[in-house]
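Researcher: Here's the sequence for the chain we discussed earlier.
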Amino acid sequence: MADTIPYRCPQCGGDILKTSAEPHSLSDLKNSVCAKCGRRFSEDDLKSHAAKIMDKLIRDAFRRK
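Model: Thanks. This is the structure I predict for it:
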């Protein structure tokens, strides 16, 4: 069963990441591919993207106070 996950591809700007199975951890997403251009994502790519999301969430939380 393949699932899709919203993710902005740095190569083509596509916003769907295809996985081969339902992800339960970050390592399950390793070697996922962009549905638009077929770019494979390493675990480091995904960690970098997750860090950017967390940074934005933290900054937004402090701005609300």
